[in-house]
Known about the structure:
- By secondary structure, the chain is α+β, with helices and mostly antiparallel strands.
- 26% of the residues lie in helices and 21% in strands.
Amino acid sequence: MKLTAVIYPDSETDWLVAECPEIGTASQGKTEAEALANLREATELYLESFPHVLKKAATIRSFELAHA
Length: 68
């Protein structure tokens, strides 16, 4: 199963947050690899308990703001 990971820095710590938009799971790690591995584990454990949760495939798009 191929899923999406969105990884970004936590605004309050020096950790990285990793989220899976298709499932709704999230985790964190000190490095991108650690955050991704932790997200994979969290998502696998979640799907073991709730196997029919898979939502539609996520679409990632970028957009710009004129004033921010």
